[in-house]
Amino acid sequence: MATGIPTWQAVHRLIAGELDQAVTEARPLTPARRSRMTWAASTQGAGEIVVKVRCGDSAEKKTQWSAAHLPALGARGYPVPEILWHGMISADWHVTVQNRLSGRPLTALRGPMLEAALRLVELQAGAGIVADDRDFTGYVSNVLFDDWDDVWADAPRACAPAGPLCARLRHWLQPVWGLRLPPVDYANNDLNLSNILTDGIRITGVVDWDEFGLGSRGLDLVALALDCERFGDHVAADCLLARAAGVAGDDGLRCLLSYRAIAGLAHFSQERESYGNSLGDDECAAISAVLDRLHATDRGCSAQAASDDR
Ligand SMILES: Nc1ncnc2c1ncn2[C@@H]1O[C@H](COP(=O)(O)OP(=O)(O)O)[C@@H](O)[C@H]1O
Ligand SMILES: [Mg+2]
Predict the structure, then answer these.
(1) pLDDT tens digits, one per residue of 159-194
(2) What stretch of H or E contains 207?
(3) Contacts of 132 (CB under 8 A, 6+ apart)
(4) Is residue 210 domain-shared with residue 116, that is, in the same domain?
(5) Coil, helix or strand for 300?
(6) Is this model's pTM higher than 0.85 or not?
(7) Which ligand 1 atom minimizes the distance to the CA of 208?
């Protein structure tokens, strides 16, 4: 178990030294969670910055990969932050300093903003590089089919409806058990609405690249779809899911949606204190509603029907 989250005083001392300039006006952007916290701050030379601490295996290696590869996505016209400095602050905790992008987090995705998000995700297509140990679709299949990281064990504990929902997902996955999607796209792998910034007219930034890697951009579309569904926008959710199926195929959609569902629920289990219980219930309701509609429209359900008939 990691030691407690580092204080701002300790983080400040480290980064002011590493950046070699005054770091002032720190204010939290998120509450302290068990695994992470993010602050905004000001500097003279680097302008407005965002400082994030997080614990977890491989944070340093993952951030090295992000720092090296985010510029390639930026060169495609994708509004990514620049990682200005990163390093360990203790044996368990890692610090990332980025420039602060303008805008506020999205709370909905409709009309021109939905179109803009779809265009943005399309920019992630075909990275053209070898995934090596940042093969996220490989990781997805390891979680789904090889029980990695106890995600199947933790997800049912998120809330009361999570147990039956996980059983439903496991059943739904049977016809595609073992499927491993090729890691061909750049993928944020946690593209929820709060990670997309807007000035109200256009998308000004996409942040939170902790899990950046190679994978399927379909997973990012699925993450956005579940957020839209949770906020009551079924039309946007269906549009995003249709696009995800176009990218990953109906069988691939089954894997990506199941992964996103159980990873999200497992996360709620681990961070219960900061999210409370109702978010788990809302997430289960959103996942169930999406599954109901996919079943009703037969999207990715032909194989299920065949297996049900057996
Ligand atoms: N580079 C950045 N520029 C502007 N805002 C940011 C940046 N990074 C993070 N934020 C803001 O801080 C919030 C939390 O940071 P994030 O990295 O998403 O942490 P978490 O893992 O807790 O979601 C984001 O939702 C966004 O509003
Ligand atoms: Mg985030």
Answers:
(1) 999 999 999 999 999 999 999 999 999 999 999 999
(2) none
(3) none
(4) yes
(5) coil
(6) yes
(7) 17
